[in-house]
C-alpha cells in the first residue's frame, strides 16, 4: 500500500499539473458520482493527509485513497477500464487508476474522512508530543500494530513500520512499553518520511545506491547490514514482518 510519502509526492505532482487551471473535462467513473461534472471549475490545490488525498475544485473536494493498487497518473497515455476519474485542463490530463476510495465532497466537509487520524507526519499539523502520547496510550500493544494505526501517526505503512522497528532495536511484536524513549521513535518516523517525501526511490539507510536503501524490509534471508545475521520474516498475517534477530530484541 502506498505510504504517506508516496501520497505527499502525488499531491505535489497534481498541484504542479492542475493548480490554477480550469477543468475542461471531468469524467468520474463511479456510479454514485457519475453525473457529477466539474468542468469549468478552477482547481485550487491538491493536498495529502496521511494516506488520503484531496483535490480542491471550486466548492468541492475530490477525496481519494490509493489503498493497495491505486495511483494518479499525469499525462495523456491511453485510458483503460481501471480509470476511476479523468480530469483534464486543456492539454493536461490526470487519471485516477484503481483508486480504493473516490468520493466528491462539499469542500467545507473535506476534513470529515480524516478527522480520526493522528498527527500527519508530513503535514502542517505535525505534533510530536501528541504523537508520542498516542503511541503510548496502550503500553502492552505490539509496536508494529501501534505504528500502523493511523490514529497514532498518519502516514506510516508496512515498509516504514519494519524499518522503524529495526532502527529502534525492537522486534515488531514487542510491546510499546519496551521503548526506552518513545519520543525518539516519533522523531525518527518524521525524519524518515520527510527525507523521502520528494524522493522517487525510498531510502531509510542513508545509502541511496541501488539495493542498499532499506535495512530489513524485503530482505528475508539476506545478511543484516549491521551484524551479518540473516534477516527473518513472518508472512503468516496480513502484514509481512522483517527483522534481525540479533539487532532487535
Automatic annotation (TrEMBL):
GO terms assigned for molecular function: class I DNA-(apurinic or apyrimidinic site) endonuclease activity; damaged DNA binding; oxidized pyrimidine nucleobase lesion DNA N-glycosylase activity; zinc ion binding
Annotated Pfam families: Fapy_DNA_glyco, H2TH, zf-FPG_IleRS
Cofactor(s) this protein requires: Zn(2+)
PANTHER family associated with the record: ENDONUCLEASE 8
Organism annotation: Mycolicibacter minnesotensis
Family classification: Belongs to the FPG family.
Lineage, uppermost ranks: Bacteria, Bacillati, Actinomycetota, Actinomycetes, Mycobacteriales
Protein name (record): DNA-(apurinic or apyrimidinic site) lyase
Record carries keyword Lyase: yes
EC number(s) on file: 4.2.99.18
One GO-annotated biological process of the protein: base-excision repair
Enzyme class: lyase
Key words, A-Z: DNA damage, DNA repair, DNA-binding, Glycosidase, Hydrolase, Lyase, Metal-binding, Multifunctional enzyme, Zinc, Zinc-finger
Matching Gene3D superfamilies: 1.10.8.50, MutM-like, N-terminal (3.20.190.10)
